[in-house]
Design a protein that fits this description.
Blueprint: H1 3-14, E1 20-24, H2 38-54, H3 61-74, E2 81-83, H4 85-96, E3 98-101, E4 104-109, E5 112-118, H5 123-126, E6 134-138, E7 141-142, H6 148-155, E8 162-169, E9 174-181, E10 183-186, E11 190-196, E12 199-204, H7 211-225, E13 231-235, E14 241-243, H8 244-252, E15 260-265, E16 273-276, E17 302-306, H9 313-323, E18 328-331, E19 339-345, E20 351-360, E21 376-377, H10 410-430, H11 446-456
Parallel strand pairs: 1-14, 1-19, 12-13, 13-17, 17-18, 18-21
Antiparallel strand pairs: 2-20, 3-10, 4-5, 5-6, 6-7, 6-8, 8-9, 11-12, 15-16, 15-20, 19-20
Length: 476
């Protein structure tokens, strides 16, 4: 694989796709705010007719209409999307945290799929797959050269179907085949553990349907292990977002009742709202999922860890806890997705995800195309930032909503190209990829170690190179 392609593969691991904070409203038809543009609609109908009658080969009418809708929506912003039957199914799997597969959290290492963790109780877990195992082959397809998304698609499928994997276990220096029967998997969006006596770590990987209930259960378990917590790290690194109500609930777990969490504002009445730390803003099934949490949680010293991959709902949590002076935010400046999407179902199998509002932190900040600036900037490793400059952010996306007048950030573009070329040159010389970042929550997790130091009042190794990305404005 060429150096350029190799580097592109590394970057894709930190790329963020489809980050969203979603507000589910009833799908109802709305009267137009202005008369329909009849002339343009007639042109659309004329083009449709010409394609049907004159195109070189027959075209499916439904595909034409779906493509027209997709084009109309994709021209709005990076996060509005028309869901056809297939993409709507995938979207619902993402928000419910359920899919059909083998049950592993994965990454990439040396061009192979690396098992970060088998999901407890899943077919992969029962088959004995372990963290650190590498998948070299899926059925008859070698993994080398596949993207992460392609590998995921090959491992997913219908319930009760089989997939054959070839596993390389480095610890035993051996490869072996294994056949696993796919089944419905419930994604664990919350992980937690005691780092050491008195100090806990809770990681939220995405805000899904079951995240709040899982989050509350993990916190209960931590307090059972140690009722006198001295500090807690809430890890939101690489959390791309998810359901808005989940962000409100997680924030509410640490804030006084009725404290402002986030406000939204858009064109329609439903988009103008303020969400507070109160069950009426996040409890969907009647009972408050946070009701059993100990009162001490409202006052335990806290660090929130974020990075360039923290987006949308995770930025809402970080912004709320920062503005309410409830936690110290550490890490790197976040992705900068300050918009809210509403999903409106069009039919049983199709839907429209459309941007309906911007959101604002309790102090009134819009972080759109900017992100949350940490109180303490910390590099991703003790040696510095390996991939940070290369990661995509909201301001890099085509057609992103602007936050006031903006200019293209030429300095950042230049920095990204310089960092990319540096990695490519290093790979071309040594043929060795940069060392993968340690697993979040592991003993080698540098930002987590700095967060624990902050909680203990010990010195923190603050980044010497990270600087705040400021919104650029046009000179008048």
């Amino acid at each position: 694989m060429g150096a350029k392609l190799k580097v592109a593969g590394w970057i894709s691991l930190g790329a963020l796709a489809g980050a969203m904070a979603t507000m589910q409203f009833t799908a109802t038809a709305r009267s137009s705010l202005s008369p329909l543009p009849l002339e343009e609609l007639q042109q659309l109908a004329a083009v449709f007719g010409m394609i049907k009658s004159d195109y070189v080969e027959p075209v499916d009418e439904k595909k034409l209409i779906n493509d027209a809708i997709s084009g109309m929506v994709s021209g709005l912003d990076p996060h509005s999307q028309f869901f056809d039957k297939k993409s709507f199914k995938e979207f619902r799997e993402g928000t419910t945290g359920r899919f059909v597969g083998v049950g592993i959290e994965i990454g990439m290492e040396d061009g192979l799929v690396k098992i970060v963790s088998p999901i407890e109780g899943s077919p992969a877990f029962r088959a004995g797959l372990k963290s650190g195992d590498l998948i070299s082959k899926i059925d008859d397809v070698y993994v080398k050269g596949l993207g992460l998304d392609q590998a995921v698609k090959k491992m997913r499928g219908e319930p009760n179907t089989k997939v054959a994997l070839t596993i390389y276990r480095k610890s035993e220096n051996r490869s072996f085949p294994i056949t696993i029967t796919r089944e419905e998997i419930k994604v664990q969006s919350v992980r937690a553990k005691m780092i050491e006596p008195g100090y806990a770590w809770v990681r939220v990987t995405q805000f899904q349907d079951q995240t709040v209930e899982d989050f509350a259960k993990k916190l209960e378990d931590l307090y059972k292990q140690d009722p006198n917590l001295k500090g807690l790290v809430l890890d939101l690194r690489n959390d791309p977002g998810g359901l808005l109500e989940g962000a409100v609930a997680v924030s509410s777990a640490f804030l006084p009742k009725d404290a402002d969490v986030v406000s939204t504002n858009g064109q329609i009445a439903e988009s103008k709202a303020t969400f507070k730390a109160n069950p009426e803003f996040y409890a969907r099934r009647g009972a408050d999922p946070l009701r059993r949490l100990p009162a001490a949680l409202k006052n335990v010293p806290m660090i929130v860890l974020v990075n360039e991959g923290s987006a949308s709902a995770s930025e809402i949590v970080a912004g709320a806890l920062q503005d309410q002076h409830r936690a110290t935010v550490m890490g790197a400046q976040t992705f900068g997705k300050g918009s809210v999407q509403t999903v409106r179902q069009l039919s049983a199998d199709t839907a429209l995800k459309i941007t309906t509002a911007r959101y604002y932190t309790p102090s009134g900040r819009s972080i759109q195309a900017k992100g949350i600036v940490p109180d303490v900037m910390v590099d991703e490793t003790a040696e510095g930032n390996v991939f940070a400059a290369l990661r995509t952010r909201e301001a890099d996306l085509e057609k992103h909503l602007v936050n006031g007048p903006e200019l293209k950030d030429d300095a950042r573009e230049k920095q990204r190209e310089e960092e990319r070329k540096k990695l490519e040159d290093e790979y071309a010389k040594t043929k060795e990829a940069p060392k993968p970042l340690p697993e979040f929550g592991s003993a080698e997790d540098f930002p987590l170690a700095q967060a624990i130091n902050q909680l203990k009042g010990k010195p923190v190794l603050v980044s010497k190179t990270a600087v705040e990305r400021k919104a650029e404005v046009k000179a008048e």
